[in-house]
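Lab notebook page, bench 4
Experiment: in silico fold of construct C2
Operator: M.H.
Input chain length: 385 residues
Purpose: comparison with the prior construct
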Amino acid sequence: MVGQVAWPAAWGSPPELHLLYNVTMNVTATPPANPLLPGNKRQFIALATAAGLAILLLLAYFVWFHAAIPGRNALLSWMPEDAEAVLFIDVAQLRRAPFFADLLAWAPKPDTDQEYRQFVRDTGFDYEKDLDRLAVAFEQQGARKIFFAVGDGHFDGRKIKAYAEKTGAVEKSGGMEILSTPIAGSSAHLFFTFLTKGRLAITNSNDFASWLHSAKATDDGEWRGRFARVAGSPVFAVMRNEALRDAFSADPASQALARKATGGLSSPQLSTLLAQLQWLTVAGKPENNKLRVALDGESLEDKNAQQLADLLNGVVLLARAGLSNARTQQQLGAATRQSYLALLKSVEVSRIDRPDLKSLRLMFEVTPDLLKSAPKYAPAGAPLK
């Protein structure tokens, strides 16, 4: 077929390409007699248009997808198939967004501890400047939380290896050089290796080699499909039911984590409904000076998805009513109240039913004014600059 481009199987299903150009041709002059030209003008125009479309498709592929998709999918391809949650951040892309500067200005600036400053000097790596992309998978193995991470960035291999030799060990395993270093204040170790010059894999699992050779999430249709849905977002997290149950169960520690994640909101009904979801995907995408956030919750039962939608709509209505209260207006101030109202106004709750799962989507916008109004948080003992 004219203009067909082979899509590498390792990248999964190709993203939908919406052509943004209208191709028209105005052929007014009589073409000279030429046996190489089709005798029918319509055939000639159709052939030329098809060739033009093919060129545009090739340009779109090389300009839009060739540079961005491989790096992103290459990191996701290392995530283990049995992960409970996967987090992805394209730091390089976020740095170019105007909203990122507002986010950094809002974020607390605790004093960097001496140990980290020494680490930067020894390794030549500062994650704020040298990290470009990061994918992290999380698992619960018994009582221990395990993570597997792969990052792209600017690494000084010689310095990092020397640091590992000084603080830990360097071993050979399966033809790969595995470096390890102890975790401060713990008997556990971090294990890492260079997959390429600019790509580093790291984990706190003692069985590093098994992870490197285990089945991957991108080979699983469920993970692959959800990664494809958020292909345009530089930051996202995908969580399975196991992770949601751990985060929103009745366990006091889990409830404390849930309250932190929701800014202090405590609702047993909300926690119960979230714990029943099979998948939850959270994605953020900068748009001009805003951050567009989308949450996609998937449930086996239509009843659960509808109850969650009704509950979220009710929370929004109650919040709007609360902001109209005279006492609340006096406590918050006009600017803060307006930023919260803008957030609530941007909220959209909708239902998206898929063949095997009943889905709920929540979308809202985070603005610089909202960040200015939001309280800053710093860990205990970390003074703000």
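Observations: The CA atoms of residues 80 and 288 lie 34 Å apart. Confidence is low (pLDDT under 50) at residues 1-69, 260-264, 377-385.
Next step: discuss at group meeting.
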